Amino acid sequence: MSLNFLARLPRPARSQRTLLPSVKRWGSSISQRPGSDRVRFPGAVNSKFTTEMSFINPAETSSIPTYRVMNSDGVMLEKDRKSLNVSNEEILTWYKNMLTVSVMDVIMFEAQRQGRLSFYMVSAGEEGISVGSAAALTPDDVVFAQYRETGVFQQRGFTLKDFMSQLFANRNDNGRGRNMPVHYGSNYPRTHTISSPLATQIPQASGAAYALKLQALQNPDTPPRIVACYFGEGAASEGDFHAGLNIAATRSCPVVFICRNNGYAISTPTLEQYRGDGIASRGVGYGIDTIRVDGNDIFAVYEAMREARRIALTDGGRPVLIEAMSYRVSHHSTSDDSFAYRARVEVEDWKRRDNPIIRLRKWLENEGLWNEDMEQETRDQLRKAVLKEFGDAEREKKPPIRAAFEDVYDELTEEAQEQMKELKRILETYPEEYDLRQYEDGIKGL
Amino acid sequence: MDLQTEFGSERVFNTPLTEQGIVGFAIGAAAQGMKPVAEIQFADYIFPAFDQIVNEAAKFRYREGGTGVNVGGMVVRMPCGAVGHGALYHTQSPEALFAHVPGVQVVMPRSPSQAKGLLLSAIFQSNNPVIFMEPKILYRAAVEHVPNEFYTIPLNKAEVVKPGSDVTVVSYGQPMYLCSEAIRAIEKDMGASVELIDLRTIYPWDRQTVLDSVKKTGRAIVVHESMINYGVGAEVAATIQDGAFLRLEAPVKRVAGWSTHTGLTFEKLILPDVARIYDAIKQTLEY
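Above: the input entities. Below: the structure tokens describing the complete assembly.
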């Protein structure tokens, strides 16, 4: 009756991270040459010595420039630049996809206000970022999004029926009625189901990209694939942003991070979010190729994304950061009244000043590809189509009750089966307390 | 054994020092069909990754629903438990925190052969994210024959390590050895017959094996190293009173760490030891 066997134990098995000394000598540990003008500390191998004591002051460095292709009148800034390499038909599709999101947003926001929908988040002002970037992806690329990227889903083939089924959590919803509205998801093209916790998708995107890289090594016949990961500038303050970008850099992952910097995280303006030069300046700190683009310029977003995708696939994989600048024209969500923290005039000013949809429309009109009649007709068609799917989805049954218990694990546990039985007994004992008509197969669905 | 030399630096590699990053990275890889086996250096440092485990890994299959995408391929290994001088941050066993989270499997082996069989199950047979907790005091202390070939031990299944008829002792991980020692002593001193059960998987756990045993013996004791408050023992005891009420001849006793932190010099007084387990069995038998 003693703890003798504890006393026999050696000191803690692994008290620190060490490599076996014989394993290898890292390039960073090359010996310092006598008289060298550079430091050979392993943590910074190419740093020159200096006798001048000078702190780097971020305020004295100029901001990273914002890449744009056309001005707010839809006119190309460089007349003789090489063409986008995109057909006019495709550009018209982008335009219609932005319009679709915009039309759906207005209707669904209103539907929430009428209590027909529990929650909604619009993308107003950011349609160009999501549609333009998604247009540069292949269907085999994998997307992790935050929640204000409806245009990504639209561009990747999500139908109005898919959107409405999710928003109304009906039996056709991919998420089986489990998630809040706008938490869309699709298997192929793989656009992972949105989850509410901010920034959690960022290190996941790095891991997913690493998986694509290993799969490409194992099977060189697979088409080249990257991961695209979206988040707002507020989410970039989370620890997961730091973790995700750092690990993507050290493991050389083929992932493109797209930050939508729209000026606000709910009520928090960027001045209270960070004091550096936006999010782009951080990418450089992680050793990541970085660009800032005008998010209201769909051509700039598309071009930057196309190039980022190419860079991400070079040398077996490299992360890239795109910071797309825009303005969140709308309220944060249906649960938010943004005029409580920003002036109405500021929003009105932005609505007038610049908008990705109007800018592309001007370009299309300049090219003779669009006019007021086409605009009206398309808007009417979209509105009708949205309302039809809205009505159908609203009338559709909810998934069967067993969906509440399924998919926690790959199989129902014994405990879950017992709890389902107990719920069934309760529902049968107190039928007047529960309205089960909305669920597919009613109580039999349990 | 050097896994990196054998399998290459693409498959066995260092990450930056970020627990939330490590688990998030593993989730992402698993979501594309890989089988990442992530390591957290000490269970005490899993908390930065708590959000990724609770809100992400555990809920991934459920929220993806009809897309069928899941992170069932992932395993997170972590050394846990006391080593005699680990103090506050090299001692913890947070299994109860994860047992409150539907969607993950929580496993703790007690021996080398069990560790191998359960870990292989977690990696190759479980299609759910697994939290695999390894009592680090046993890393070099426990020696036994371990078959070289591939074999698995089923998850979610308890093991009756020693049959008995008078009282059931339920435990897992390192305290299994303390229980064995206490049982040997009490059987010699009191002539009692004690049944010892190793839960092996802490959640979802094998309720039937425990209930069958207690229905037979009429008495039960739960032993674990982590704190008694809201610990695994609370769930086991509540399940026993619910499922074997009419067979119980004594209250279900819980022998576990006191509800304090593991102060360096007080470890022996805080964690359950053979004396406390012996005493609990004695009191239960004499009730």
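Note for the figure: The CA atoms of residues 212 and 271 of chain B lie 28 Å apart.
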